[in-house]
């Protein structure tokens, strides 16, 4: 396929306003360096970091577009909302959360499905139902923090039935991993990307990341030890969610 007129987007990024390590401005700067045309800031249960990043881009007239996103903690796993105007609160039923995203004209992306460590996505049954009710638009085929063989293949196989837009995201918490995995889309702007997701025309891209990943793991471990507090609020929500999930 000719991808000459395609652009790059990284649609899953975190800042230090939740469990990332750097402010929105730094993430934008790194995204520019990585030659991304569009990014989404998707902090946990907040849209403020994305709004700050978008303001920064507009103030400085930078050649990049920021989509306002949120990685929403729901009772059945995490969900990413893109093109948001209003924050969706955590701990809702996943179908309610997805409806709230769709009602404000947003898109729903399923982050890291089938993964059980370092954040968890909804189960296959839940995705099936979300898709059936037209409450899902895209699915992360690749995510930087995936562990386990055959994850991407299993997602692709299931998506053969669902026909959701294929997404690849770095899920960066550090500016150095931005754009290591990305999504290609026809066009240049955030609105083109939105259309491409709705028309299922996106393509995920992932190079061989074996050594990059080992290095990042060590870096993250080091940073977490030095800044343990940055993760506390999130850890509380995440623990509660997992507990509810297990009790189901
Ligand atoms: Zn994430």
Quick rundown:
This protein is an alpha/beta fold and 248 residues long. The protein has a single domain (6-247), classed as Metal-dependent hydrolases (TIM Barrel), CATH 3.20.20.
Structural class: alpha/beta
Which radius of gyration do the C-alpha atoms yield? 17 Å
CATH topology category name: TIM Barrel
Helix content: 25-40%
Strands side by side in the biggest sheet = 3-2-1-9-10
User: SSE order in H/E notation?
Assistant: EHEHEEEHEHEHEEHEHH
Shape: globular
Mean pLDDT: 89
- Roughly what fraction of the amino acids lie in strands? 15-25%
Instruction: Note the gap between the termini.
Output: 44 Å
List each distinct ligand once.
zinc ion
How would you characterize the overall build of this protein?
- Strands 3-2-1-9-10 form a 5-stranded mixed sheet. It has a 5-stranded mixed sheet with strand order 4-5-6-7-8.
- The protein has helices at residues 24-33, 48-59, 94-103, 124-132, 151-162, 190-198, 210-226, 232-247, and strands at 6-13, 38-41, 65-68, 70-74, 77-82, 107-110, 138-143, 165-169, 182-186, 203-205.
- The chain is of the alpha/beta class and 248 residues long.
- The longest helix is centred in the C-terminal third of the chain and has 17 residues, at 210-226.
- It has one domain (6-247): Metal-dependent hydrolases (TIM Barrel, Alpha-Beta Barrel).
- Zinc ion (ZN) binds at residues 12, 14, 71, 119, 171.
- Residues 12, 14, 71, 119, 171 line the site of zinc ion.
């Amino acid at each position: 396929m000719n991808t000459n007129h395609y652009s790059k987007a990284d649609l899953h990024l975190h800042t230090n306003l939740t469990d990332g390590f750097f402010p929105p401005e730094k993430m934008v700067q790194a995204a520019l360096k990585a030659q991304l045309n569009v990014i989404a800031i998707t902090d946990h249960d907040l849209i403020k970091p994305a709004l700050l990043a978008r303001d920064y881009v507009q103030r400085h007239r930078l050649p990049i577009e920021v989509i306002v996103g949120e990685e929403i903690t729901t009772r059945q796993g995490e969900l990413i909302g893109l093109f948001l105007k209003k924050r969706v609160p955590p701990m809702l039923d996943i179908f309610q959360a997805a409806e709230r995203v769709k009602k404000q004209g947003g898109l729903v992306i399923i982050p890291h499905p089938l993964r059980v460590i370092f954040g968890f996505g909804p189960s296959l049954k839940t995705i099936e139902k979300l898709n059936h009710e037209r409450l899902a638009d895209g699915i992360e085929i690749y995510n930087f923090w995936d562990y386990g063989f055959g994850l991407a293949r299993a997602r692709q196989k299931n998506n053969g039935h669902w026909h959701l837009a294929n997404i690849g995201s770095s899920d960066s918490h550090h500016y150095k991993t931005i754009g290591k995995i990305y999504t290609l889309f026809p066009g240049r702007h955030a609105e083109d990307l939105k259309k491409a997701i709705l028309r299922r025309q996106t393509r995920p891209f992932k190079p061989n990341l074996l050594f990059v990943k080992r290095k990042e793991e060590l870096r993250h471990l080091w940073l977490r030890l030095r800044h343990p507090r940055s993760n506390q609020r999130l850890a509380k929500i995440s623990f509660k969610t997992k507990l509810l999930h297990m009790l189901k």
